[in-house]
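User: I'm writing a tutorial on reading structure tokens. Could you give me a worked example: one chain, its sequence, then its tokens, then a sentence or two explaining what the tokens reveal?
Assistant: Sure. Here is the example chain.
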Amino acid sequence: MALTLIETSGAADANTYISAADADTYFESRVGGLSWDDIDSEEREKALVHATRVLDYSYDWSGYKTDDEQALDWPRESVWDKNELLLDEDTIPTKVEEATCELAYFLTTEDRFEEPDSRGIREMKAGTLNIVFDKKDPKEVIPANVIDMLWDLGELVSSANSGVKTVYRS
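And here are its predicted structure tokens:
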């Protein structure tokens, strides 16, 4: 059975935050060498659904679901953006749609959930180069640009994204 995208805001059977056509439009205006058109349309649709799921599993969104019957976490009520403007409780914010597109593309570049042979680097020495990999450091699931897009709409809570690190300089 073929996948059917359902992007109706607040629907009980919705499975994506953005339609395939709107995602195509988003990528037409995006710079940076992304080749969304090179991905099979069926794979693009699966990526949009998967990206939506990953965002909902990974974020503790601000506010509350508009309707208890809606399948997805958006739309929401009582959510203010970075400009302290109350978001429309009947629509999905543009930045959530765009973040879904970015994450969908990112997820198509490789299997982000596959266990890697070697994860993050735990130790590196300069004299007679010695690199030790940290087996407890999983692949990044949500890229930094998506996290940056959504910082004011909720908190990233998923441990699956431990690849995002805060760097402190002394």
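What the tokens reveal: Residues 20-109+140-161 form one domain. The radius of gyration is 18 Å.
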